Amino acid sequence: MSIAELQVYSVEEADVTGGVCVVRCVGGVARAGQVYAVGESRMGLRHIERYGRPVASFDAGHVAKVHFTGAVVALLTRGQVLTSVPPDGHSLEDLEAWLATGPPLRDEPQPRTLRVLAGVRMRDERLPDEVRLRWGRVALAATHRCAQAEGTPALAAAPELAYVQGYLIQQFGPARGGDPAALCRELLALIDLTPTQAAAQGRGWRDLPHHRIRHLRRIKSLIPWLTAVRPHLPDDGPLAEAVDAWSAVRPDLP
Known about the structure:
Elements: E1 5-15, E2 18-27, E3 29-31, E4 35-38, E5 41-50, E6 53-55, E7 57-59, E8 63-69, E9 81-84, H1 92-100, H2 111-122, H3 129-150, H4 154-177, H5 180-190, H6 195-203, H7 210-229, H8 238-249
Antiparallel strand pairs: 1-2, 1-9, 2-8, 3-7, 4-5, 4-9, 5-6, 5-8
Helix pairs in contact: 1-3, 2-3, 3-4, 4-5, 4-7, 5-7, 6-8, 7-8
């Protein structure tokens, strides 16, 4: 993500929650949702107006009226240059504290960017295990935020969530990585067919309408994660039986 720089022309209004400024973009592309650094403080760029109309972004050489969040807006001075903070500039501790506040979905780093960043850190074997686990929890939170921001149905969002949860369990075991039984129950609850019904539909999938084919494929995408945590389930339990049944059905699905 490019780094944007804004130069302050004037502070039009400000209070403890934020304010409105006229700024000129002097580098990169300014976008609603970015975060700007002012020393150790942070301001969120929530809204941009140009010629009285809202816009999503504006680039170098252009002037706009912008709405910032953060009490530090009142302290800005004419000529001051503000720099956007890229996702890589956020520490793990900062992100954990930020997520704990339940920030708006449009705030930077935005859900998908944050999910990618956290996923990379989660898989970085150069980091200590406990740090990777913490990044994994950030990745889970970011994946939930992606589903909310994009309005993704639960079944469609489940594979991405299952990937993170399943990865943590595989890498760090149930004691630290998560509860495999809970993951299986969560995924199985999203499937609205029995294995027998899914197998029957799967064998004739070419004759199904497109939305049913897509539905079967989404179910199929969950099965590898059920299978991945199967070794951590008691062999004689109902969850293990259900996972085994779905594993047997998977080759029949499109």
